[in-house]
Amino acid sequence: MKASRHHWRPAYIGIGSNLDDPVAQVRRAFAALQGLQASTFARCSGLYRSAPMGPSDQPDFVNAVAALLTRSDPASLIQILKNIEDAHGRCRDTPRWGPRVIDLDLLVLGTLAIDAPPKLQIPHPGIAERNFVLFPLAEIAPHLVVPGRGSVQKLLSSLAEIGKSGSRIERLE
Question: Is the preceding omega at residue 136 within 30 degrees of 0, hence cis?
Answer without folding.
Answer: no
